[in-house]
Structures
1.
Amino acid sequence: MASNLKFTKELITFLGKAVIALLETLVFTFIPRPRKNVAGEIVLITGAGRGLGRLLALRFAHLGSVLVLWDVNKEGNEETCRMAREAGATRVYAYTCDCSQKEEIYRVAEQVKKEVGDVSILINNAGVVTGGDFLNCPDDLIEKSLDVNFKAHLWTYKCFLPAMIANDHGHLVCISSSAGLIGVNKLADYCASKFAAYGFAESVFIETIVQKLKGVKTTIVCPFFINTGMFEGCSTVRPFLLPILEPEYVVEKIVDAILKEKVYLYVPRFLYFAMVLKSVLPVKIALLLSDFMGVFNIMDGFVCKKKKH
Ligand SMILES: NC(=O)c1ccc[n+]([C@@H]2O[C@H](COP(=O)([O-])OP(=O)(O)OC[C@H]3O[C@@H](n4cnc5c(N)ncnc54)[C@H](O)[C@@H]3O)[C@@H](O)[C@H]2O)c1
């Protein structure tokens, strides 16, 4: 009897809170969510030497943030640093850091804490891709994919999350991928690393919820293919549903999601629908649909650069 009463009470509480959350979501569908102010926030971007990382740095420069730029490519990173200053950033710090090396991450992170301060927005963006049939992928490149695209996220969280918790203030941003939602032909190790990054970021997000760390936010980003050069040669056969995205557009969406403290961002929107289809369709139909969408052959034109940073 007592347990029935407890169950009923918990059910009513849950339903009440769910209705309030639903109403809140509905309201924010029509009224844009307020954007937070990131002026003065210390924003660390890994892989800032080109592509999305560089564009993110320029956007945060415009927003008045203090920039900490990491990349294994010293020249590219210093060029981003120079461009960020031109874009109005007054405090920009470039560090050469190979994110595939745990000890190097720990060493450079200590330097950042001493020279700049506590990072309050951490954007794990650095990434590499092998590309090709799994059995033809060299072991060292598979390990590199996992080290840069996933394990670096573990080590950077260890370095910077404690201060965010202590200050009850911070934002963890995981740049995963649509390849972190759906397996892709010829991207097995990349997908594994992106699924892992997603799962890790989502699990720590749940930890922050359970521990009532209201000031520590998470944003997980899953874009489809982007025209940055990383996936040079890849093309889509259904551009109206799954276009190859322009980097400026993706960065605009990412920054908007961070400022609105959105937890999940999939670009383009069709990916939200694709995830529902993946969960509900019989496998044979899902495979037929993937084939129709050209997803099986998306890597066919890939220009393999065998990046070995
Ligand atoms: N380009 C796409 O189609 C696409 C799609 C979805 C997700 N993503 C993800 O977005 C992120 C950015 O991709 P991008 O298209 O800008 O790629 P990019 O190749 O243009 O830039 C990646 C950056 O990461 C740096 N980097 C590589 N290895 C590193 C290491 N060991 N340590 C430090 N820095 C390192 C590179 O030097 C480079 O500056 C990646 O995580 C990528 O997986 C890209």
Note: The first helix runs from residue 2 to 30.
2.
Amino acid sequence: MRAVWFDRFSARPLLRDVPEPTPSPRGVVVRVETTGLCRSDVHGWLGHDDGITLPHVPGHELVGTIAAVGDEVRSFAVGDRVTTPFVCACGRCPECASGNGQVCRNQTQPGFTHWGSFAELVALHEADTNLIAVPDSLDAGAAALLGCRFATSYRGLVHQAHLGAGERLVVVGCGGVGLSAVMIGVALGAEVVAVDIDDDALVRAARCGATRTVDSSALSRDAVLEALRETSPSGFDVSVDALGREETAAVGILSLRPRGRHVQIGLFPSDPVVPMGTVIGKELSILGSHGMPAHDYPGLLDLVAADRLRPQDLIERRITLDDVPDALVAMGGDRSIGGVTVVDVGA
Ligand SMILES: [Zn+2]
Ligand SMILES: [Zn+2]
């Protein structure tokens, strides 16, 4: 089968023929229909993820059709159209037993712990725990984006921060995951303010329903906070750092009201300094989000089915496997590529 493959971090990936995967006893092999190109793929390719062994095939947010099933799979069959959270849980450890498979201690991640979905076929483990049936009517790009970006934002805002209707949300960083947070915040009835250094990103955020935007390109941290105070004088109820920089996390945290909740979604290249004095003095909550277990997907799918959430509206580029090496290299060199790219692998 054809796959996007690399054997050195940061070296240009190749499109080449590799052996087809076979399903593990409780796993499946999925024929990839569409897969998203996510900033985490770039982190992995640059060597920031120590779960990756070389050579490697990246790709972790996907929709496709089951091509082969392991002997012990009970709930899914060849031909089913499915997606999966990028964190595949084991279904048996204490975290899984408590309903928190997104932090499973035995987790597997396609495109990280094993070969991923920038390929014609991808193996997924513990299918009965992790697969989510996807209706044929759902746009393939939208379905793919549910595997990582929308699930991570949804879990962060709904299950972690408990964002409520009428609350004020600030989203710092309006790439794919930030825009999904804007969209979800709006769908939940929050009043959303978006911050980015890029005009186009802010236009996209406004299109997703942000009521105010702050262009932080020429502003100091204090000036950004001052601009945010003008939009919400008593502070925000919830903040999201969707980028993963010391400055963006600090802006999110420092813009909160007392007892506000900060959700960290953007991944850091290395651990940041966090304004802990403010965290203590205002009793802030700092929350992570690491995707969402399959059993929590119905709430997200309901929003999509009701057309209150339209992941497909974020998609600006549809490319093929042949285009992925160049796209990864471009994304690695420039954070302002903007908008969401999905890869149509097969029909
Ligand atoms: Zn587990
Ligand atoms: Zn991702």
Note: The CA atoms of residues 235 and 257 lie 4 Å apart.
3.
Amino acid sequence: MSTSSPPDPRSGLPLRARLATTVGGAAGRASRLAGRGDGSVIGGIIGLRLQPDLLCLLARGRRIVLVTGTNGKTTTTRLITAALGTLGQQIASNAFGANMEAGLVAALARAPDATMAVLEVDEKHMPAMLQATGAQVVTLLNLSRDQMDRAAEIWLLARRWRAVLAAAPDCRVIANADDPLVAWAAGQARRVTWVAAGQRWHDDSWCCPNCGSHLRRDGDDWHCGECPNRRPPVSWVLAGDEVIDPTGRSRPLDLLLPGRANRSNAVIALAVAEVFGVGFTQAMNAIQQVRSVAGRYTHVERRGCDLRLLLAKNPAGWLEALDVLAPAPVPVMLAVNAQVPDGKDTSWLWDVDYRRLRGRQVFVAGERKLDLAVRLEADEVAFRIVGSVDEAVDLARSPSMDVLANYTAFQQIRAVLGRTA
Ligand SMILES: [Zn+2]
């Protein structure tokens, strides 16, 4: 990768594109002032109407990292941004998770002087966004069902990733070797850094993506019994609470963010940082200081109770979130909605094992609290249904409580508590 500084990204923009970013930026500010979110998406949409290839124009001359996968995108984007921030350059990023084309446009337009960008990308849009931005680095975290996506859609997606990465020989791929679908998707890329980042959710990857036979697993290792497809040799390894770097040196991962999933995200971020010449200690110092990501893991004081907010969007995310719950007897509130961004169907609730919640105070809320209640009944978890966070706080009479919610339920709770991070 060239280390010479790229030209000022703004100076190359055609007049119409400059106009598009100006108008889009004004619309975004208006939307923010009107209290309709952070305004980034509306600004991007308007910019793209005026200049359909705006993303391509805005990306020109910048060094770009794309981050995609089913879970962990927002957090990993934040950690990579922290690590690369130690280089002292301004970095553009869609830090609040607006991860489709308009969100990327808004992030780049907002930071015209940034010579680098770390961008979270929706997994379905990654191929088009890679082609539009010409990103130098693509980070593949994992690939599993989101809500009620069918397995066939995941496989189709992996095939699209594989094709676009094979056609981008200059792109460096950082990929999770423990996820067989990800490994296959990156399998024809020219330059791959393989990371043993772990895979908690195995249900979507029992079949070999290459030939359809049964995959065999032996601890972390996996291979196909029928074809040569196997786990690639890894450079970076997450081993319990430690990270092993490409030289074989093992060091502790002391993070403020909780849980195995975040340790996995951190190891991926360290591998990306290395590509840009950021040393381990320098990157690690920045990564371990990140304490909340777009309001997730945030602590909020509410009526004398220290609430910790956890977001989980799909079965794999709920498993990871249940892993990081504070130990009993700390009470927990679960909130589930089924609006369009959540998926209308709540049958995924049955894919998660809730038995570990037995023996502690559990509160159930959200628009689909009855679906959740039925599910908890089946797992013999005692619970109380509540109408709000405040009701749960009042009933719990506890100095602290974990609040775990899916996407729109999380947004509603944050709106009640105020945007605190
Ligand atoms: Zn096979």
Note: The longest strand covers residues 305-311.
